[in-house]
Amino acid sequence: METTNSIPHVLVLGGGFGGLWATRALASAPVRITLVDRTNHHLFQPLLYQVATAGLSAPDIAAPLRHILRRQKNVTVRLDEALAIDLDARRVQLAQGELDYDYLLVATGATHAYFGKDEWAEHAPGLKTLDDALAIRSRVLAAFEAAEREDDAERRRLWLNFVVIGGGPTGVELAGTLAEIARHTLPREFRRADVRSARVHLVEAGPRVLAAMPPDLSEKTRLQLQKLGVEVHTGEPVTSIDADGVSMGTTRIDSHSVLWAAGVAASPLGRQLGVATDRAGRVPVAPDLSLPGHPEVFVLGDLASVQQDGKPVPGVAPAAKQMGAHVAGVIRDRLRGGAGHAFRYRDYGNLATIGRMAAVVHFGKLKLSGLLAWWFWLVAHLFFLIGFRNRIIVLVNWGWSYWTYQRHARIIVGRGETQARSTRAA
Amino acid sequence: METTNSIPHVLVLGGGFGGLWATRALASAPVRITLVDRTNHHLFQPLLYQVATAGLSAPDIAAPLRHILRRQKNVTVRLDEALAIDLDARRVQLAQGELDYDYLLVATGATHAYFGKDEWAEHAPGLKTLDDALAIRSRVLAAFEAAEREDDAERRRLWLNFVVIGGGPTGVELAGTLAEIARHTLPREFRRADVRSARVHLVEAGPRVLAAMPPDLSEKTRLQLQKLGVEVHTGEPVTSIDADGVSMGTTRIDSHSVLWAAGVAASPLGRQLGVATDRAGRVPVAPDLSLPGHPEVFVLGDLASVQQDGKPVPGVAPAAKQMGAHVAGVIRDRLRGGAGHAFRYRDYGNLATIGRMAAVVHFGKLKLSGLLAWWFWLVAHLFFLIGFRNRIIVLVNWGWSYWTYQRHARIIVGRGETQARSTRAA
Questions:
Q1: Which has the closest alpha carbon to A311: A380, A211, A206, A165?
Q2: If we measure between CA atoms, which residue out of A161, A170, A261, A168 comes closest to residue A201?
């Protein structure tokens, strides 16, 4: 270790909204910080579906962590992966070494999960990382290509069936955008496949889409999705997925292109913290977000299970940012000899986009849907995008997509995987 | 097949400069065209090194072939791979089916080759496709990350040694840009690794870099490279490459980051055309670019071996475009009952970029180097970039990079591969 051992070492695991906001809020604190992430970038996850649907490039919604933090001299960024936490020794085992800590922030987030049906993963890829987004993009674009190549009408129809599982924000965004691509972006470019006849199914186990919204906005979302051409199935839990489609009990949808936006499971690191995690693997924390019995360890973001007014704090970006800022405040208090104080989530509202010029917004008593909500969503997301350059590029790309219906990032990369799949499935 | 069999079917293999320009030049001809490519995009290969060095995103320099050709109603684009050509039956076997033809254009280009040393490929990736570029980008960025993570000074130094093999345009561009990244883009962002001390070696077997240029411009290129911080080795053929470096006879450069920009071999499809190919696998063609004995088959672009005035026509984009337009003209002549005419390459000049504000230009008697040549190069490349949108985005990105020294696409994707390599090499 360095010769700076007298300065407390804050080890932050995860450069998502929770970890990055905590790190930034400690900029002027008398600590040295190591931020460890297994990717080299902070990802603006709310726009990940745009990369998956070829509207944006990967670098449009991601920025290198060390670039974001280049002026914050008390931070060292390390590309590495945390494998094990030794709470007694206050040491973290990484894939490429180990680090001691005085304070540990565990903010490794969540990944998609298949409710114990891991064999579904192969047929229904999920969307949590840039690699996931590029894989989904390649798979969706390859399906249209396979339809164009196919001589048999029935098999061609099958390639134009898309199923999105999960009616939360990601599922709604994916389904709406896929329908837009099939109806508006691609038809003129295909000669043999009737791309306009593509069907997009959105399958939700619960009674309504966007369950976090008030029921009337869920209903408006369903209507807007249907207007875009999405077939919405609610109250239909998926019972099996294979290479040729999805079953919901006795109902069957044939498809080679099934996307998973349903289950979420917390990072497996949570299970090493010596407390019983909840069903989704989240770690119950003390009111100040510290680990019970370990005031020097904090759990934040999607990995933390926080109850407030009898309801769980939702796994959304604003909550993670607030937790990050809170934990930084607690550490600063402690360094001055104070005690921690309780975290309180401020819910500023909820918004989700559905597709071209369609969105829903719920802010306190304000409820919007349709075009106005979409503008609201657009401005909010551009505003929160990290990095000045990205905002301009994303705005140019969106302006272009808006006027031309084109999606500039329709580039299949990772050829090996795509070809292999086409061959297998054809 | 369709019911349009009375209309001659032109089958084009490859959507690079040769195949795409031939296809476009047949827009008004009484033919139906099928353009087959194993990727879904046309790639602006002259800027591929910018994707490899994180200056541009993959979609910035690529456009879907079917989008480029959406208004040309006599073309069907097919994502597929040609496996075998049956010249007698006039039929091509594809990975996903087969197609008959009346005219066949083989324009499948070239790939990088290791002079029979295929075991070098693993340690020295080449640059021909977008996947190659993303793999090189991840490898280079991961090397800087490994240096930052490394505690041992000697091993850290090793991670900051970069070797580019091959002093042609691609090698010069890669080496110059790597030096720029190490000197200007990254230093402020690293805390432990002294990125400015990174060494970039350019290794060329022949006596000078950019051998296609006049000797005085080669010398200017060498001087500009050295000014950027590149160590230029000429007259030193590589004798071995392994995970820890490169040997040129008794000289040894230790490095985990070796990039290959030396050998090129024509597409293996050339060997199926029944004629003896040259050492690089190129197909000797008749003066009108048809295959000797098969006037209905044409070979064009990097796959064709064309001699003119005792010199080979170079494997560059303008030559491939001219061949494409020429072959289209021959086919139109033939359809009107005429005979083919001989191809003649018009050499408009030669230009290569070296790094930030450094380039060399050779147009007839005009020879430029330095800043003026760089502006010349920039305007020429922007002008030829396919697609209006791409030009604007690329210009914005370059403007941004120019003023800030930043490279926005510094995002490592394909994590599995990167991590595996770091682990192995560490």
A1: A211
A2: A161
Chain segment A354-383, per-residue pLDDT in tens: 987 889 999 888 999 988 998 888 888 888
| Tens-digit pLDDT profile for residues B231-263 | 999 999 999 999 999 999 999 999 999 999 998
Nearest alpha carbon to residue A238 among A77, A355, A383, A123: A123
- Euclidean distance between CA atoms B274 and B270, whole angstroms: 9
Partner residue opposite B130 with nearest CB, options A70, A413, A419? A413
Kindly list the residues from chain B whose CB atom is less than 8 angstroms away from the CB atom of residue A69.
189
R_g over Cα of chain A? 22
Which residues, 6 or more positions from B323, have their beta carbon under 8 angstroms from its beta carbon?
A: B18, B21, B22, B289, B300, B301, B304, B306, B343
Could you tell me what percent of chain A has a pLDDT over 90?
76
* Residue A413 to residue B134, Cβ atoms within 8 A: yes
Q: With CB atoms and an 8 Å threshold, state whether A96 touches B423.
A: yes
How far from B223 is each of A157, B211, B236, B369, CA to CA, in Å? Answer: 60, 15, 18, 11
- Burial degree of A59 (CB within 10 A; 0-12, 13-18, 19+): buried
The pLDDT tens digits for A227-238 are: 999 999 999 999
Cross-chain CB nearest to A188 (options B70, B145, B393): B70
Of B377, B354, B401, B317, give the one whose Cα is nearest residue B202: B354
Q: Is the dihedral of CA A99, A323, A74, A30 positive or negative?
A: negative
ipTM for the whole predicted complex goes beyond 0.95: no
Residue range A48-57, pLDDT digits in tens = 999 999 988 8
Catalytic: B173? yes
The phi, psi pair for A367, rounded to 5°, reads: -125, 125
Q: Is B43 helix (H, G, I), strand (E, B) or coil?
A: strand
